[in-house]
Amino acid sequence: MKLEKIKELIKILEENGLAEIEVSDLFTRVRIVKVRPGDVVPVPQTVPAPKRESAPQEKTPVKQEEEKRNLHPIKSPIVGTFYRAPAPDADPFVQVGDVVKKGQVLCIVEAMKVMNEIESDINGKVVEILVENAQPVEYGQVLFLLEPLE
């Protein structure tokens, strides 16, 4: 939701003497609560998502090798859809084996129609891309493994 729309909601709240207002549409939900000094503010409770049961995975020689090499994970900072390229007909930002610099764009994660560029936070070599193109990703999900380079 755009800042102008939120400011408009605050103005409606103020003009009508409301304590709170909530508006939602297909993609967003905004709740604005006016708090006065001395008010007790209830803390919203969140319910954790149920944990998925998965079979225990044995360490394969490849995974053991990755641990020995001290690979650096690049994680998704948001929930959204992972894209390897800036457009459907464009080349991917990076491939396995590419050397990347700190600040270089590795992918895009789309969230609420906003394309968020995910950059490398180190100089390194792309060892593995862990997500398929156009797949949903979760907050904190590892997208890439990089081998740090000095």
Structural notes for this entry:
The chain is of the alpha+beta class and 150 residues long. The chain folds into 2 domains: 3-33, no CATH class; 65-148, Beta Barrel (OB fold (Dihydrolipoamide Acetyltransferase, E2P)), CATH 2.40.50. It has 2 helices and 10 strands. It has helices at residues 3-15, 61-69; strands spanning 20-24, 29-33, 72-75, 80-83, 99-100, 105-111, 114-119, 124-129, 136-137, 142-148. The strands form 3 sheets. The protein has a 4-stranded antiparallel beta sheet, with no helix packed on it. It starts with a helix and ends with a strand.
| Structural class by sheet pairing and helices | alpha+beta
Order of helical and strand elements: HEEHEEEEEEEE
Strand order of the largest sheet: 3-10-8-5
The CATH class of the largest domain turns out to be Mainly Beta
Beta-strand portion reads 25-35%
> In the CATH scheme, what's the topology name of the largest domain?
OB fold (Dihydrolipoamide Acetyltransferase, E2P)
Main β-sheet, in a few words?
Answer: 4 strands, antiparallel
Low-confidence stretches: none
Q: If helices are DSSP runs of H or I spanning 4 or more residues, what is the number of helices?
A: 2
Total domain count: 2
Cα-to-Cα separation, first versus last residue: 42 Å
* Share in helix: 10-25%
Shape: elongated
Instruction: Provide the CATH architecture of the largest domain.
Output: Beta Barrel
